[in-house]
Design a protein that fits this description.
globular
Amino acid sequence: QVRLVESGGGLVQPGGSLRLSCAAHGFPLNYYAIGWFRQAPGKEREGVSCINNKDGRTSYTDSVKGRFAISWDSARNTVDLQLNNLKLEDTAIYYCAAGTRPTIAYCSGNVSSRGMDYWGEGTLVTVSL
């Protein structure tokens, strides 16, 4: 059974840090990219970051550049998102998603949900005073 599992969310103060992990299980074929997305209450889901497993390309939305970093952890077989210098507006449920289509140029500039066919259930990040 194909599944993605996020972990690492929690409650932090502004300026604090968290490290989120996305573990992929049960894929019959290789996946080509992992994206991180977030959705705050009452707002649309937005792309946060993406990493392409074929060419190593990474993408970030403007609001997190310089603060967040996405990486592969080969030892744990996860894709991690390091969240630094967290702001109140970073509060959201964070989701990871996997892209498995060989013809899509994942993470090519925008953090897009196009071609992201598998999604986890999310982990909550709350930034609060």
